[in-house]
Every structure is written in C-alpha cells, then in structure tokens.
C-alpha cells in the first residue's frame, strides 16, 4: 500500500466520521448515518472521476465501503466522546478536506491534466462531499456560509504545486499540501476569516 492510498483511506475515514457525526445530531438511524457518511466520503471523488472520464474509484474496490463502516463503528463505540464534542465535526472535516485535496490533485496529474485542472479537481474532491452531506441533512452547505473553506483547498493545491516545482520529494509534497489545507482551515475558523458577503437588494412585491 503506497502513501497516497493511505492518505485516501484516512481522508475517507475522517470525512465519513464528519458526516456520521452530523447525521447523529439529526437523529438518523445507523443505516441513514452510514449513507450520509459514505456520500460525504466519496461524493467529491465521484464527481472528480466523472469529470476525468474514469470509473468512480469506489466502484472498483469495496474498501471504501468497509472504511465507512469502520467510521460508523468508531462513532457508535466512542459516541459519547465524539458526538458531544462540538469541535469534533470541524476537526475531522478539516483533516478530510486536506487529505482529499492532495488525492484529487494526484489523480488529475496522473491522468496528464495540467496543474490548474489538478487544483480544481483537488478542491472539488475535498469540498463537494461536504456539499452533498449538508444537502442530505437539510443544511445550507458549509462552503457557502462559513469561514474560508474551498479556498483552503486552492491554497493547499498551490503549496503542493510549488513543492513539486522545486523538486521536493512526492511524499513530502503531499504532506505539505495536506497540512497547508488543514492549517488554513484552522486559522480561518480561529480568526473568522471569510470572503466578503455579496449583498443584493431585495425588492418588495
């Protein structure tokens, strides 16, 4: 198992926990929570693969189903620690965001797409699963209403690119790229960094 595969599984586990944790807050049953966790974990990567015109990754091996099941078991066993912590969702979401950004970039580059496409696909891999998760639990997607989110993926993608441009070892570049996303997300939440809100006039009818 190579390092990128380990990152992929860790990202799947982290994102699945973030989805399952929110589903539990909405009082979903085990099956519903599993579905939300699975969609959160594979949603972004599925959209990425469809755009890259390759078979969705999770349809080629059952390991992602198993990792999601492990995440559900983790939440069930350690529920009183995981579910009750307000910052648990944020921590696992930030970790998944960083890890999946790198995975998306690597897959795009492996299919000979230019780096700018890789950054877009990395951002999509990291952020789209959370959009689907929030839609399933009937929430306004986090990406549209909170501190810097998708831009953290772009920042991490640029850091990863600069590392490869400067000849940094692939594994080190992957680690730096993922950590850059996670740190940007942590700082954005800590200091409430966000883009200006687009304000429009609402007319009365």
Automatic annotation (TrEMBL):
Keywords: Cell membrane, Membrane, Transmembrane, Transmembrane helix. Residues 6-78, 91-163 form the Glycine transporter domain. It is a multi-pass membrane protein. One of its GO terms (cellular component) is plasma membrane. Its main location: membrane. InterPro entries: Gly_transporter. It comes from the Bacteria. The chain crosses the membrane at residues 6-24, 31-51, 63-83, 90-109, 115-136, 148-168, 174-193. It is found in: Cell membrane. Belongs to the UPF0126 family. This is Trimeric intracellular cation channel family protein. It comes from Candidatus Odoribacter faecigallinarum.
